Amino acid sequence: MQLRDLYVLKADGRRVPFERDKLARSVRVALRKRPVDDERIERIVNGLVRKLEASGETDIPSGDIGKLVMDTLREVDIVAYIRFASVHWDFRETKDFAAILESIPGPAEARAAAAGARHDGAPRDDAYGPGDVKRR
């Protein structure tokens, strides 16, 4: 149960009401076509909202919300984390993606999965590379 209204402090200085549905949409978009079911997504969103409410703050900077979402997605699904980060940080070039991939610690299998490769390092069967044409 929410005890008080939450507000988001935007980077441009605006103060807008927190919208749970907007947070849920962002998480769902990041997790689209990932192996995370709707029930788990709902638990993730509920957990995020509880953390925001428990912070004791009424006005929460949008960057803090973004960081909380990214920290959560990083633990749930690294591809969703990269997707969300690319929007949150406004990636504009491939080097932005390369930098985040380089920053991901952990086993080679996790980095390979995030890069679209199979665990053995080979590209996925449905992955495209430069000049590749998908065969039917």
Automatic annotation (TrEMBL):
Pfam families: ATP-cone (PF03477). Belongs to the NrdR family. PROSITE patterns: ATP_CONE. Residues 6-96 form the ATP-cone domain. Residues 111-136 are annotated as: Disordered. Keywords: ATP-binding, DNA-binding, Metal-binding, Nucleotide-binding, Repressor, Transcription, Transcription regulation, Zinc, Zinc-finger. Negatively regulates transcription of bacterial ribonucleotide reductase nrd genes and operons by binding to NrdR-boxes. The keyword Zinc applies. Residues 117-127 have a biased composition (Basic and acidic residues). This is Transcriptional repressor NrdR. InterPro entries: ATP-cone_dom, RNR_NrdR-like. It comes from the Bacteria. The keyword Metal-binding applies.
